[in-house]
Amino acid sequence: MKKYISIISLALIVVITGCSKTDDEFLDIPPTSVIPADVAFTDPALVLAILGDLYNRQLDFSALDNRPIPGTDNTDPGWLTFGDFSESFPSDAGSYYLVQRTGWGYNEWQVDWFKSYAYIKDLNLFIQRDSAATELTDADKKRFLAEGRFLRANFYFEMVKRMGGVPLVLQPLIYDIGKGNVSDLQYPRAKESDIYDFVISEAEAIKNDLPADVNEKSRASKAAALAMESRAALYAGSIAKYGASRTPQVTLPGGEVGIDASKANGYYQTALKAAQEIINGSAGNYKLYEVLPNLSDNFAALFLDKTSVNQESIFIEDFKANGGKTHGFTTNDQPFSFSDEGDDAGRLNPSLNLVESFEKLDNTYAPLPTTDANGNFIYYNNIQDIFSGRDARLAGTVLLPEAVFKTGVVDIWAGYIQPDGTITTSDNAVNQKPLPGTTTPVQVVGKDGPVNGLALRSQSGFYIRKWLDPTVGSGRRGRGSDVAFIRYRYAEVLLNAAEASFELGDNATSALYMNQVRKRAGLTTPLEAGEITFDRIVHERRVELAFEGHTLYDMKRWRLANTVWNGSPMSKADLVSNIGSATKKNTQPWGLWPYKFYDPGGVNNGKWIFKETLPSVVTGSNLFQLGNYYSRINDDVIAANPKIVRQPNQ
Amino acid sequence: MKTTSYFSLIVLLAAFSACSKKDNYDPPQSKLTGALMYKGDSIYLEYNRVPYQLYQYGYGKLGPIEQTFTQSGTINSLLFNGDYKFIVPNGQGPFLWPKTGAGSPDSVNITMNGNQNLNIEVTPYYMIRNAQITGSGGSVSANFKAEKIITDANAKDIDNVVLYINKTGFVSGANNIAQAAVAGADITDLNNINLSVAIPTLTQKYVFARVGLKIAGIEDMIFSPLVQVSF
Question: What's the rounded Cα separation, in Å, for the pair A523 and A525?
Fold first, then answer.
């Protein structure tokens, strides 16, 4: 034992003295897996790589790839983020809860507080380090800085939409261990209006440091900053105006929630000015996408075209097939009967509530005519005749029965119906049945549904078309789709301008902007200034911007959410009345089921009739409580920072 | 060496078994029950809509135990013994909850030491009195009086009154098979309000019914007692 000890001691002495000679070098080997900040900010390519990560961490309400679930490391699939609010039916057994719950929890739509502020810290660090960089060219440095500030402002905008005023932290917070307490790192919530003011002032400050280039889409551009400013100011203006008149209870005494009504006009003016700066071309040559002769195909192509032909999209989240960043939206939502993946398809089914809200070409609203004045069915020769003469955006947003997608034809019909009303159908298209009076089994229901409870086929009678990728192989899980998600686009800017002018009392200008968007949709009879109403504004945004993540935020800022989603079930009479009214109830997603009329020898044999149908899976109804206007700030956040006040009505 | 490993095993065992006694404690066993009352009358609410919060003093984290009142305005919580404060958050419930000067809800102090029954006295904006709900000829009719309780600066108007019927005992705006409403502006006599609703085709020979009153600017409705109506 003694021998060992002396040998070890000897060895130790040798090692230690050996080290002491090269001590400085030995302990100063640069790590090979980490690039230190002072090195990274010498090379524009490295800065761009850091920036790429920051771009990737932006948060959207609806996203094509996936959405993180707050408080967990899990995500929701992309399609689900488009699936709520009765604008669609989720044909996916694990997602029926969307239509079976009776309202939303107060924590719904909240941001993950800790991850969000970790992201803000990284943005603040980026801004700080870029400002301090000495070896970048001035042009690079300025642009990177502007991009960092754009991402930070856009993220605070996303936070304020969900949570109201949040702590406005604009520099990295460093904990001083010597001090022993964190009280100077605990920021109280800023006023809701302060956050909107911050977004607006940041956009103004950085817009000229960003490229005014219509082809700069996945990185921030001047138009992106202005589009953000216009939308933010519009939101703030409507919260100020309608918050005071419709939901005076949804405020906090410190202004963390709620904006004073006197500020509304100022915000609307800002929104209009920012939108007009894009419209008058000073941010690049943006215009509506008008390329294809068929207006519906043109509208669908707007969301697929990533070439320089598309001068409408302003800021996008881009994807690249075979390049590592793709999404499964097409895989999850492609029509079942010609899906690229046998058991992955058809989840997102637009509802009749949305479909019937697309206007007729004479600018009037009407339900889809299923019965005549006496209550008798109307017989249609072709299944699509019932949809004729409507806003071209209908067929551009929704795959109707017998619509063509890729190389297939959507096969949606619910069965055969006899003159006495007897229906012959089955639980699956592969289960054939003989028709009455015959013995040969035939297909008695569409391969794409609708059958109640049969997931992955349409249960509402429609499939989604917006964002659905017609590229070969885009429906395969392995390849995925690289359709980009458009965060800001020119048509929305026009609608922002239209709404802001309307709220400022200038209906003529409002009509001018709105008619441009409507003309592209085939609504060629312009609306007169006198025809522009609040309901028209609400309607136009609903149909133009359906499935783009606007529904909830629009309903929240107009303070219509607790009226539209009032929790009471929706009858057929509710469904077909008051179309185009901003306060129309929208609590349950209805469907429109086509039936083939079976009356051998009769004049109507083989024609189509339609029935409004509430899918039997739908048992809940949407209830939006006053406490839902601003998502809950969790107790652990408040426990860690007692300066944070709770949301109202929770 | 062997001795050492046996010895450490024993120490480890002792340590773990000791833990089981020290670390775990019994589940909460004191039951807090109670109901919302106004001068001896129960206040009826909608199921799962009106929350209440219990904060335990001296328990580190600042977070409430949150639950909701039942349809008949009762509460029911299993708690540890200790000091609590009880609040109804701002803007909840068809009644006026007392506030502190700073505008946050004023709390009721509760000391739990064994089971406790706590009746919480609140002032509702309105009470539904003498509700007579009867069924006949395929419809349910209700006759009742709406009494305005708060008449000072905090007074609110009636938005509407609704008669709900449902197949189960949960009867409200979210859970009903038929309803009939009259707007507050159309009510001529608060002492004599009549509502009638047709019963949809049912397999069962009874429905549950009650009347709800929606107060303007207040989210939660106040209800009459639940009645089972046979027809």
Answer: 6
Closest residue, chain B, to A563 (C-alpha): B219
Q: Do you find a cis peptide bond into B124, omega within 30 degrees of 0?
A: no
Chain A residues closer than 8 Å to B176 by CB: 568-569
Answer yes or no: do B174 and A646 touch at CB < 8 A.
Answer: no
**B92 vs A649: CB contact, 8 Å cut-off?**
yes
Judged by DSSP in three states, B100 sits in coil
ipTM exceeding 0.90, yes/no: no
Q: Which residues contact A387 (CB under 8 A, 6 or more apart)?
A: A355, A368, A394, A395, A400
Backbone φ, ψ for residue B119 (5° rounding): -95, 130
A253, A569, A636 member nearest B103 (Cβ): A253
pLDDT tier at B48, thresholds 50, 70, 90: confident
* pLDDT in the model for residue B175: 83
Q: Of A562, A568, A646, which has the smallest distance from its Cβ to B173's Cβ?
A: A568
Q: Which residues from chain A sit within 8 angstroms of residue B179, using beta carbons?
A: 568
What is the Cα–Cα distance from A458 to A348, expressed in whole angstroms? Answer: 8
Q: Quick check: A482 and A319 in contact, CB under 8 A? A: yes
Contacts of B91 in chain A (CB under 8 A): 249, 626-627, 648-649
Q: Which residue type is seen at B166? A: N
Chain B nearest CA to A200, separation (Å)? 31
Q: Is B60 exposed, middle or buried (0-12, 13-18, 19+ CB in 10 A)?
A: exposed
Do residues A46 and A34 lie in contact, with contact meaning Cβ atoms separated by under 8 Å?
no
Torsions phi, psi for B49 (to 5 deg): -115, -35
Residues A78, A82: Cα–Cα separation, whole Å: 7
Tell the burial category of A58 from Cβ atoms under 10 Å away from its Cβ (0-12, 13-18, 19+): middle
Among chain B residues, the shortest Cα distance to A104 is held by B49
CA distance A287 to chain B (A): 44
The 10s digit of each residue's pLDDT in A47-76 is 999 999 999 999 999 999 888 888 888 888
Closest by Cβ to A642, choosing from B62, B89, B90: B62
Residues from chain B that touch A102, judged by Cβ atoms under 8 A, are 174-175
**A639 — contact with chain B (CB < 8 Å)?**
yes
Given CB atoms, is B15 within the 8 Å cutoff of chain A? no
Structure pTM?
0.89
Cα A317 to its chain centre, rounded Å, is: 12
Q: What is the DSSP letter of A211?
A: -
The answer to whether B63 faces chain A, any CB pair under 8 Å, is: yes
Rounded to 5 degrees, what angle do the CA atoms A44, A204, A272 make? Answer: 135
CA A168 – CA A493 distance, rounded (Å): 27
Q: What CA–CA distances, in Å, run from B10 to B16, B21, B58? A: 10, 17, 38
- Mutation site, A104, A106, A643, A650, interface B, largest B CB count within 10 A: A650
Return phi, psi of residue B76, to 5°: -165, 105
For residue A29, the cross-strand partners are: none
Phi, psi (rounded to 5 degrees) for A594: -85, 140
Q: What share of chain A in percent tops pLDDT 90?
A: 78
Give the H/E segment covering residue A90: strand A88-90
Q: Residue B40 has which token pair? A: 């001896």
> Other C-beta atoms within 10 Å of A38: how many?
12
